[in-house]
Amino acid sequence: MSKPIYPEINSNEEVEQIANAVSSNSEQEEKLLGRDQEKSITIEDRAKKKGKFPLVVKLTILMAFLFVSVIVVSLVINKHISQDTSTISMPPSFEKSVILISIDAFRWDYANYCQTPNLDLIKSQISSDGFRPPFPSKTFVSHYTMVTGLYPEYNGIVANTFFDPIINKTFVMGTNESLESYWWLGEPIWVTNELQGYKTGCYFWPGSEAKIQDFRPTYYEIYNQSVPYQDRVQKVLDWIDLPQSERPNLITLYFENVDTEGHLHGPLSPEVISAVEYDDTIIGTLIDGLKERDIFDKINLIVVSDHGMATISTSQVIFLDDYLNISTKSIPQEYSYNKFHDLNLNLIQNSLNLEDFQDTEYDATIIDWSPITAILPSVGKEDFVYNALHNVHPNYTVYRKEETPLDLHYNDSVRITPIIGIAALGWSVTTHPQFSAHPDWFQGGNHGFNPFLYPEMTGIFMAHGPAFVDKYNQPVFDNLNLYILLCNILGLNPAPNNATESVIESLLKN
Ligand SMILES: [Zn+2]
């Protein structure tokens, strides 16, 4: 795995103080790689398991001759060729291709309350009791976890808004700055795919616009929520219609309307039900397009969501300024409502830097607010801040970073703040002035809550196609396993990951 490119680290004492308080990114990578040596399953392992290893070797040698010119070109132009690229690309077949659709914030149970004949058709083959997001259950965090197979602490996207004390910059989703390579760690599935000789088409997916390990998907679109959904589907069909040598074997598609309505009106509101039913008709047009081309039963279709949604209310609000003197740099100026519709109080107007945390006039700076609070204490005030928040509100739990519950997998990154506050389901975190100015921000719905405690945070997984067994219902499973599932279907050698292959074995034919 290539190292993220960091700007030169400021060597002053204060920087070291913050940076040393947590493990370095390079340590993270080493730990990850160590872990992955145990977990990563290679093509050879899979082949041995199936008892077909000699045949694979013969085929590989044969293909090596046939495609020697392609390999030579690849060696010249691909500086990442030193990475394990034991798979030699063949022109993609539909049977080993995937269309991956994400409907943002489609809660696991929504379809029970809606008319969704097209989704019903897909899940008549593979359904699931739920697709569990990582912690925190936020859009960028969850989408990037799905495509890397890595916990957020290792893939770098630890929240929709976070501060990196080494880079000395703040990530805010949807900004141009957020597309810089250094934020995106690990290897998303489209990079794995392109590295091994295939093409990917992304009609939106968090991270797909960023250059990661020097790669972008062969085909991708700049996020624009105003693009009509029919146009998105038509582009997918256009990609399907490309000559075989140009055709992507992996296509992503993204719809945000269910999330938008869920935030504004709450889960299971009439607006959410309409949005779900609209998306079902859109997926119906995709299915019709595939049927017209006689490939609906030949290509693999996977529909997922990144998280669920819970009702929030103005009567369930935790005011941090009751307990702390919070830096004025923390006060959100506006929603980051411009991108992927994740209602998130953030720092768009306030670009932070390390000097801000030296100011002991304040107790702490809040990097991310609700329902998971990323709290950066001012220098020397960590104990004070922890004690000021510990056990002060029955619906708010604070942890020191090193004490977060193990199942959250949320401590091994410099981007996770020294103190984390976690609101109970349905609660919001803010300040009195903020609440008075924007009470409407605290009603409707939200997500981000602990997905291991609250099934309301669980999303959907359903699938249809030749790679899958005939009829199967998968118990609730962690969505980071999507990466290894895609590698299996696409015939890719996976990058180091945290997935558990046995979890997805029951879904696949072989
Ligand atoms: Zn959202």
Automatic annotation (TrEMBL):
Pfam assignment, any one: Phosphodiest
Segment forming the signal sequence: none
Keyword Transmembrane: yes
Keyword terms of this UniProt record: Membrane, Transmembrane, Transmembrane helix
Coiled-coil spans in chain: none
Single GO MF descriptor: hydrolase activity
Protein name as annotated: Ectonucleotide pyrophosphatase/phosphodiesterase
Annotated source species: Anaeramoeba ignava (Anaerobic marine amoeba)
Species classification: Eukaryota, Metamonada, Anaeramoebidae, Anaeramoeba
